[in-house]
Automatic annotation (TrEMBL):
Positions that bind FAD: 95, 241, 544-545, 591-592
UniProt name for this protein: Glucose-methanol-choline oxidoreductase N-terminal domain-containing protein
Catalytic residues (UniProt): 545 (proton donor), 590 (proton acceptor)
Domain of life from the UniProt record: Eukaryota
Keywords: FAD, Flavoprotein, Oxidoreductase
Named cofactor requirement(s): FAD
Coiled-coil segments on the chain, per record: none
Short name of one Pfam family: GMC_oxred_N
Gene source species: Orbilia javanica
Gene Ontology MF annotations: flavin adenine dinucleotide binding; oxidoreductase activity, acting on CH-OH group of donors
Length: 613
């Protein structure tokens, strides 16, 4: 494997046209596309190490195991009042390839309305029709064979890309429950449908970012590795960016370079044309603040000179919420829990994977359904929720963002507002496994949360000159607080429907009983609303899909956002953000494919602007 090998000193002496802060999902896409032109020189600075060849990253059936390793930043939130005064873990990829190296392999697109709403907010060129070419540009869809087709696939080949760098495929093997999934949801009135044509509502088998060799297809091994030998591309890993250097030139703050630390020494790398920040929804706003762009009150508390005032940096944080229920399932079926407790079985699974690319090391959670609220909440309740949130907004009810959220809440169109996934393993760490028993988990994720928070650099620690990138960020999503009270009510209703799925034929033949939350003493597992509210409060976790912290401002410009529709940071001449942080409002899907598409579009914009000069 061709891992990057360059010293901080050598990197700092290179002449770069573009510097990219962050070698993650988006950053490597931008670097790869720009350096297709041999006359453009690009440098990428990544905090993590390469993970090429590591089974924790490559093997589908080991998804999630890279969390809490060297590949994870291991962020955490502040104490969340709405969650019973709990802190939540926030996993983020600290590795070449970023979170595309440690995510759960899920590949999907949002609803057409998700992207159209970006354009309706004034971000010209960001609607569904504009995004579709970039979704296709990213992807090479591997046509399913007989082993995959038996899993009830619904797709249109022409909806996918055929020559992109990320390979997508359907798994050859599924969990034992999957054969019951589609019929169960159909018995509840949910239809099957292809999911890449602008609506994800329905029941379907999930597509994955797994290549033809049954390994992870991600930014580092697809956008970087084949092109690592390009003379005009330099990537330095294990290096921490301290700030983007901004200088007033011709009346505008201009990014001239990046200050970074590598092997214990600080260096400055220079950029002749632009600096691109692609550190994701957590760290992109932090880098801006450390560079002097943000809320003056926050910057002054950190003893950082204010260079561009923008109170939106780090605000508008929207993260999806997840809650789960655990069930005892048919014990004769093998599942991944067996591999955690039995080393012999784990070794056998590894051997089967290496020899045949089959077995438990290939299985991913792929039993999906996305549903509108009207599928599981009565219409009068939805109207009541809409009235409550409108009253709470008061004069702010007319703001474009609030109207966008309200429209999705009350929409009669097929929008996937709640995601349900069933997986034949125990996802809940506080629930202990009993020997001889098997467990499955019903997961639900709210797609359009009203909970909105912020993340920022902390004030200057005692004894330090200023806040630096070594200091832990203040991540406060404000789950179930303020407008987010509505989210808790919707999640409680979702739990009722998730439980209903498990009690519906034919899945109920596979699911024996609910074990967490435990039934009442008389064995009744039909919960009262107050009990559900308490369960949601104390057991909600993050779905790890934060967005919005460097949002496109649209028609409101810097009054609402951080970047314009060309992804340029307001108040600067040549600084861009390109990653999930630029989404103005959440989308209904796992965001991986969208982040790749944003990066492809961002790279295209950079090239257009360069050639127009």
């Amino acid at each position: 494997m061709s891992s990057p090998k360059i010293s901080g000193l050598e990197f700092s002496t290179c002449q770069f046209d573009y510097l990219i802060v962050g070698g993650g999902t988006a950053g490597l896409v931008v670097a790869s596309r720009l350096t297709e032109d041999p006359n453009i020189t690009v440098g990428v600075i990544e905090a993590g190490s390469p993970g090429f060849g590591d089974p924790l990253i490559d093997l589908p059936g080991r998804f999630g195991e890279a969390v809490h390793t060297k590949y994870d930043w291991e962020f955490e939130t502040t104490v969340q009042e709405g969650l019973g005064d709990r802190k939540l873990e926030w996993a983020r990829g600290k590795v070449l390839g970023g979170s595309s190296a440690i995510n759960f392999f899920t590949w999907m697109r949002g609803n057409k309305q998700d992207y159209d709403s970006w354009e309706e907010l004034g971000n010209k060129g960001w609607g569904w029709e504009n995004m579709l070419p970039f979704f296709r540009k990213v992807e090479t869809f591997i046509h399913p064979g007989p082993d995959q087709e038996k899993h009830k696939l619904d797709y249109r080949y022409e909806s996918h890309g055929s020559s992109g760098l990320i390979q997508t495929s359907y798994s050859r093997q599924q969990g034992a429950h999957h054969e019951y999934w589609h019929e169960t949801l159909e018995n509840l009135g949910v239809q099957r449908r292809p999911t890449f044509d602008g609506s994800n509502v329905g029941v379907w088998t999930g597509l994955t970012s797994v290549n033809s060799d049954t390994k992870r297809s991600y930014a580092a091994n697809e956008y970087y590795l084949p092109y690592a030998s390009r003379e005009n591309l330099k990537v330095i890993c294990d290096s921490i960016v301290r700030e983007v250097i901004l200088e007033p030139i011709n009346g505008q703050m201009t990014a001239t370079g990046v200050r970074f630390e590598s092997d214990g020494s600080e260096y400055v790398a220079s950029a002749r044309k632009e600096v691109v920040v692609s550190c994701g929804s957590v760290q992109s706003p932090l880098i801006l603040e450390l560079s002097g762009i943000g809320n003056p009150d926050i910057l002054k508390a950190a003893n950082i000179e204010v260079k561009v005032e923008n109170r939106n940096v780090g605000e508008n944080l929207q993260d999806r919420l997840m809650v789960a229920m655990v069930y005892e399932i048919e014990s004769s079926m093998p599942n991944a829990d067996d591999l955690r407790s039995n080393q012999a079985l784990a070794a056998a699974a590894d051997e089967e994977y290496e020899k045949h690319r089959t077995g438990l090391r290939t299985i991913l959670p792929c039993s999906f359904t996305y549903l509108p609220l009207s599928q599981f909440i009565e219409e009068d309740k939805i109207s009541q929720l809409a009235a409550e949130i409108t009253d709470s907004w008061g004069e702010n009810a007319a703001s474009p963002r609030n109207q966008n959220l309200l429209q999705k809440l009350t929409s009669k169109e097929p929008l996937g507002q709640m995601e349900f996934v069933f997986d034949a393993r125990n996802w809940y760490p506080v629930f202990g496994l009993e020997d001889g028993k098997k467990y499955g988990t019903m997961l639900q994720m709210l797609q359009y949360p009203f909970s909105t928070g912020s993340l920022h650099i902390p004030p200057k620690p005692p004894g330090k000159l200023r806040t630096t990138s070594d200091d832990k960020p203040i991540i406060d999503p404000k789950y179930y607080q303020g407008d987010g009270v509505l989210d808790k009510k919707v999640m409680a209703e979702g739990l009722k429907f998730g439980h209903k799925i498990t009690k519906t034929a034919p899945l109920c033949k596979f699911v024996k009983r609910r074990v967490f939350p435990p039934p009442s003493e008389n064995g009744n597992d039909e919960d009262e609303d107050d009990d559900l509210f308490e369960y949601v409060k104390h057991h909600t976790v993050s779905d790890w899909h934060p967005t919005g912290t460097c949002a496109m401002g649209g028609s409101q410009g810097s009054k609402y956002g951080v970047v314009d529709e060309r992804l340029k940071v307001y108040g600067t001449a040549n600084l861009r953000c390109i990653d999930a942080s630029i989404m103005p409002v959440q989308i209904s899907c796992h965001p991986q494919a969208t982040v790749y598409a944003i990066a492809e579009k961002g790279a295209s914009m950079i090239l257009e602007d360069m050639r127009a000069r």
